[in-house]
Amino acid sequence: MSNGQHDISRWTHAHRFAAGNAAAERGTRLVMWITIATMLLEIVAGWWFNSMAVLADGWHMSSHALAIGLSAFAYGAARKYASDPSFAFGTWKIEILAGYTSAIFLLGVAGMMVFGSLERLWSPQTIHYPEAMAVATLGLAVNLICALILGQAHDHHHHDHAPGHDHHHHDDLNLKSAYIHVITDALTSVLAIAALAGGWFYGWDWLDPATGLVGAVLVGLWAKNLILQTGRVLLDREMDHPVVEEIREVIAQLPAAGQTQLTDLHVWRVGTGAYACALSVLTHDAELSPPDIRQALAIHEEIVHVTVEIVRCDECP
C-alpha cells in the first residue's frame, strides 16, 4: 500500500483559485459603496420630502447593500487566510458560503416584495407618481452601472482562472450572487417604471402591486437556483461532474490494461474550476506507483490535488 502526497506546484495553483480574483473583489467593493451611497441618498430624500415611496426603496436597497457587502467581505477573508495551513484545501469555500447566505437574503427580499404587493392589493394607497418614477429611474441607472462593473469583473475573473485544458464552465458563485442582487434591483426598477407609467397615464393602480408579485416570483427562482448551486459545492456533491468520468477513463487507460481496477474514488471542488481527488486502485502491476497515476491525471489541469492508495494483488502471476 502506498499513499501519495500532494505536488507543491499544483497545490500553489489551487491556492490561486482559493484566494479569489482581485478584479472580482475590486468590482464588488465598488458596487457595494455605490449601493450604500444610493441607499443613504434615497433614505435622506424620502425623509426630507416626506415620500414613502422613496424611503421604502432606500430601505429595500439596504438589503442589497448588506448582501453585496457580504460578498466583498468574503473575497477579503479568502485572500487574508489563503496561506493559513489550518484550511486544509484553501479558503475558497468562504466565498461559496457568502454566496449561499446572499441567496437566502434574496429569498427574504422576494418575501418582502410579496408581502408589500399583497398589502397594496388589499389596501390601495395613493401613489406619488413623480417621486416614485424619479426613484425608479435613479435605481435603474445605478443598477445598470453596477451590473456593468460586475460583468467586466466576471470576464476578467473567467479569463484569469480558466486552466488551459479545463473545458468545463465554472462560475464564481460569490460574484454571481452579487450580480444577481444588482440585476434583481434593476428588474424591480424596470417593472416599477412600467407599472407607474400604466398607473400614471391610464389609472391602472393595480398594476404596481401586480408587477411586484411577478418580480417576487422571478427573484425567488433566481435565489433558489443560487442556493442549489452553492449548496451543491458546500455539501461536496460533485460525483456526477464530468471530471469524475474523466478520472475513471484515465485509470482504465493505464499501461498493462486490465491489470488495474479503480476500487474507490472521491472528488470534491477546492476552487473555481479546481478539484481534489482521493482514489484507491487494486492492481496486478508490480511496477505501478502513485507518481505514475498522478502523471497520467496531469492532462486534466483542473485536478490540482491527488491522493493515491495502491493495493497490490499478491496472487498475480
Explain what you see.
With 317 residues, the protein is mostly helical. The chain folds into 2 domains: 19-234, Up-down Bundle (Alpha-lytic protease prodomain-like), CATH 1.20.1510.10; 242-312, Alpha-Beta Plaits (2-Layer Sandwich), CATH 3.30.70.1350. The chain contains 9 helices and 3 strands, in the order ααααααααββαβ. Strands 1-2-3 form a 3-stranded mixed beta sheet. α9 (290-297) links the parallel β2 (274-283) and β3. It is elongated and about 85 Å long.
Quick recap of the structure?
The chain has 317 residues and is mainly α.
What's the SSE blueprint?
Elements: H1 8-18, H2 22-48, H3 52-80, H4 92-122, H5 129-161, H6 173-202, H7 207-234, H8 242-252, E1 260-271, E2 274-283, H9 290-297, E3 303-312
Parallel strand pairs: 2-3
Antiparallel strand pairs: 1-2
